[in-house]
Design a protein that fits this description.
CATH class: Alpha Beta
Strand order of the largest sheet: 1-5-4-3-2
CATH architecture: Roll
Order of helices and strands: HHEHHEEEEH
Radius of gyration: 15 Å
Number of helices: 5
Structural class: alpha+beta
Number of strands: 5
Helix content: 25-40%
Largest sheet: 5 strands, mixed
Strand content: 25-35%
Number of domains: 1
CATH topology: Nuclear Transport Factor 2, Chain: A
Shape: globular
Distance between the termini: 47 Å
């Protein structure tokens, strides 16, 4: 696919995530889709809990779900997106951090996603604090 088509695909993926449109999200995934998170995070590596299980309780509204994705680069088979991870704890503390994602695209679908958080310690600390209260 062209870089422009892949840019649109990536933004469609983010829109589906922000809107919690699981059906649309699954339609955009390649059958062999792989997802890679930093292993130091509670949903990274081969841990049992998923990103959704961890973050959805801390994203009660549109503001927290907004990711502000910006396609930094897109080619024929991959793209790079800078986006924001947001959340709010039950007691009101907020988290807002940057993430860079490297995405492989195949057959007009998202085939692989690998996330690079700018500060995994801050993410882990927020989640620990938010779940301990």
């Amino acid at each position: 696919m062209s870089a422009a088509a892949n840019r649109k695909l990536l933004l469609d993926v983010f829109r589906a995530i922000e809107q919690r449109d699981d059906k649309k999200f699954r339609e955009l995934l390649h059958p062999d889709f792989e997802l890679h998170w930093p292993p130091s995070l509670p949903y990274g590596g081969s841990k049992a809990r998923t990103w959704s299980e961890i973050w959805e309780p801390f994203q009660p509204g549109e503001t927290e779900r907004r990711m502000d994705p910006r396609v930094v680069a897109a080619g024929e088979d991959e793209g790079v997106v800078l986006w924001r991870q947001r959340g709010v704890s039950p007691s009101g503390e907020q988290f807002d951090g940057e993430v860079l994602g490297l995405y492989q695209l195949r057959d007009g679908k998202l085939a692989r996603a690998q996330m690079f958080y700018f500060d995994t310690v801050a993410v882990a600390n927020f989640l620990k604090m938010a779940t301990s209260r």
